[in-house]
């Protein structure tokens, strides 16, 4: 049996009791290093996710296999990847709080009509998305940074939006920033682990 567990934005206090129960029964625990570090007290075999990991072999491991997912497994998460290698009837997915949900809660912004996109390793026409939506959340990466987004907006004269950046969300060093497009395009700071929410008007 494979269980994919959403462990939220980072802070272990935001992991659901049911998720903790499933993790505690793992014979094999798979996840990013920072996730595995949070559960160092679990006595089982552990495999850190890296670029060479072979999920086709992972899902064939004996016993209870628990795969840790950042945020929620089905919001640009690992669940769809795992389902390429195993029948869905053999998988349980435990939802978690996404960084988008968390950031919107901190900003007091509803995400009922929020469009969520991911720039992880790919191009997305952010201008087109913003023209169709007043609120857009963006998952960034080391190339498509908050500054990259701001420069894209600036180059297209799309400067009338606010850009909210949640850095190290739910951790003790959490910081939430508000920029206009020109300010962020010229910002020299390198943001840590972050999620971006772009809003139009006075939202």
Folded structure, characterized:
It is a single chain. With 203 residues, the chain is α/β, with parallel strands linked by helices. The chain has two domains: 2-97, Cobalt-precorrin-4 Transmethylase, domain 1 (3-Layer(aba) Sandwich), CATH 3.40.1010; 100-200, Methyltransferase, Cobalt-precorrin-4 Transmethylase, Domain 2, CATH 3.30.950.10. Helix content is 26%, strand content 25%. The chain contains eight helices and ten strands. The strands form two sheets. It has a five-stranded parallel sheet with strand order 3-2-4-1-5. Strands 6-7-10-8-9 form a five-stranded mixed sheet. The model has no long low-confidence stretch (mean pLDDT 95).
Features:
203 residues, alpha/beta, Cobalt-precorrin-4 Transmethylase, domain 1, Methyltransferase, Cobalt-precorrin-4 Transmethylase, Domain 2, 2 domains, 5-stranded parallel sheet, 5-stranded mixed sheet, elongated
Give the SSE layout.
Elements: E1 2-6, H1 17-24, E2 28-31, H2 33-38, E3 45-48, H3 55-58, E4 65-69, H4 79-82, E5 91-94, H5 99-107, E6 115-118, H6 126-132, E7 135-139, H7 146-155, E8 161-167, E9 175-180, H8 181-185, E10 194-200
Parallel strand pairs: 1-4, 1-5, 2-3, 2-4, 6-7
Antiparallel strand pairs: 7-10, 8-9, 8-10
| CATH superfamily (homologous) name of the largest domain | Tetrapyrrole methylase, C-terminal domain
**How much strand content do the residues show?**
25-35%
Binned, the helix content reads 25-40%
Largest sheet: 5 strands, parallel
**Estimated radius of gyration:** 18 Å
Oligomer: single chain
SSE topology string: EHEHEHEHEHEHEHEEHE
What are the low-pLDDT stretches, counting only 5+ consecutive residues below 50?
Answer: none
């Amino acid at each position: 049996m494979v269980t994919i567990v959403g462990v939220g934005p980072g802070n272990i206090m935001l992991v659901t009791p049911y998720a903790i129960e499933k993790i505690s029964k793992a014979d094999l625990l798979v996840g990013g290093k920072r996730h595995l570090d949070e559960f160092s007290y679990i006595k089982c075999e552990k495999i850190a996710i890296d670029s060479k990991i072979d999920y086709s072999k992972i899902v064939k491991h004996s016993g209870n296999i628990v795969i840790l997912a950042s945020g929620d497994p089905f919001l640009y998460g690992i669940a769809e990847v795992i389902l390429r290698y195993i029948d869905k009837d053999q998988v349980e997915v435990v939802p978690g709080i996404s960084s988008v949900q968390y950031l919107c809660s901190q900003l007091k912004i509803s995400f009922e009509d929020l469009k969520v996109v991911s720039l992880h390793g790919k191009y997305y026409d952010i201008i087109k998305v913003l023209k169709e939506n007043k609120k857009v959340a963006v998952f960034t990466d080391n190339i498509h940074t908050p500054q990259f987004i701001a420069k894209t907006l600036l180059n297209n004269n799309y400067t009338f939006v606010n850009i909210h950046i949640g850095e190290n969300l739910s951790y003790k060093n959490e910081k939430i920033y508000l920029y206009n497009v020109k300010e962020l395009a010229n910002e020299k700071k390198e943001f840590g682990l972050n999620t971006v929410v772009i809003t139009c008007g006075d939202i």
